[in-house]
Amino acid sequence: MVDEFMMDEQKILITGATGFIGGRLTERLILDGQKKRLRIFVRDLTRIARIARFGELEYVHGDILDSDRVNEAAAGCNVIFHCAYGNRGDSIYQKKVTVEGTKNVCEAALRNSSRLIYLSTVSVYGNDPPVSVDETTPSGTSKVLYDMSKRKAEKIVGEYVSKHSLNAITLRPTIVYGPFSPVWAINPISQLKEKCLILIDEGRGLCNYLYVDNLVDAMLLAARTERTGGSYIISDGSPVPWREFYGYYKRMLDDQGVENAWLSVDRVELERLNKQRMNLVYNLKGLVKTAISNESFNKALLPYGLITNVKSFIKEKLPQKAIKTFRSVRTSHIKESQEDQSAQVAIEPPRPEDIIKFSSKSVFSIEKAQKELGFTPRVDLEEGMRRIAQWHAALF
């Protein structure tokens, strides 16, 4: 029953309510009878369809980088759930939304004596965390923009807690899946339909999954607890191999008569392929740099027109072997089925950071959240996937 998570007449502000997790939090609170206590901070009003179906809600329209607007939205709110982060626009804007936007929310929470629940990520532990991870594990390194930005944003929250006594709790969820999940439901289902999902080392790496409603439970528990200043890993607590996790989607599609396939590729081979691709990109950059300052090259290029026709020049002048190599490192191929050996589908190789992630055997402990927040995952993997299957069947 969701009644056990009632917020007791508190005024609530939610940022990122048009997203996957913030949207589900909003739905849960509305279904719990707390619609009149909600205030939604939203930048793009064209993205509110999911929550707008519940009828009139209190919206504050603005950019999270506008500190005055954020402070206005927080006025009178007892609790702020900060789910927003930068996921659109260029990398500079995304970083600003995640980092500077979080600073604005912290400042607004401090000014209005609001309790802040900040939604971070276990990505703060880096792209290749140790086998066993808990809240005492040091933060790691990653070159992924999302990971770096979240780590900086979480540091800001920590500074507001330590220097200004901000009443805040940070949650670090793992792999959050469920209906409407773009990364961990919609994307893999689409990849299976298109026969282009890649398993690394036969999917033996561990998926630390977390059903979205279990995360919402943890968020509401964090809002109610008297504890402050802590960080908590949130997961369903029972990781499974990626092959088993994605296997639910595969069986779901099989039941609907959809032909699907995945490809298992050796991690060492993928790393070799990425290294080859990066070397080729590096060499092509060097070729372009040299060409710009090479008089004979420029003369040879003249008959082909300006830079818009450089492709034609490359096709004619570069060795065919080089072109084939370039194509081979851009894509790999899988057979469409055991019966049809000739059919092939192009697949983009995983990024280096994804190769590491999907090979990882890390396990994230939720002992602290269980002990201090009273968190217990209520929806298991079987039930979570059943709900996704129902949602998928209704919408697709």
Strand order of the largest sheet: 3-2-1-4-5-7-12
Strand content: 15-25%
Largest sheet: 7 strands, parallel
- Quaternary structure classification: single chain
Unreliable runs = 321-343
Shape annotation:
globular
Report the total helices: 15
- At the fold tier of CATH, the topology name of the domain at 2-181 and 209-238 and 361-379 is Rossmann fold
Rg from alpha-carbon coordinates: 24 Å
Helix coverage percent of residues? 40-55%
Class from helix and strand fractions: alpha/beta
CATH architecture of the domain at 2-181 and 209-238 and 361-379: 3-Layer(aba) Sandwich
Overall number of strands: 17
- In round numbers, the mean pLDDT is 85
Task: Kindly report the name of the CATH homologous superfamily of the domain at 2-181 and 209-238 and 361-379.
Answer: NAD(P)-binding Rossmann-like Domain
CATH class category name of the domain at 2-181 and 209-238 and 361-379: Alpha Beta
What distance separates the N and C termini?
29 Å
Short synopsis of the structure:
This protein has helices at 20-31, 49-52, 67-74, 91-111, 145-164, 182-193, 212-224, 242-255, 267-292, 295-301, 310-317, 320-330, 352-359, 367-373, 381-395; strands at residues 12-15, 38-42, 58-61, 79-82, 115-119, 132-133, 168-173, 175-177, 197-200, 206-207, 209-211, 231-234, 240-241, 262-265, 332-335, 344-347, 363-364. The protein has 396 residues and is α/β, with parallel strands linked by helices. The chain is globular, with a radius of gyration of 24 Å.
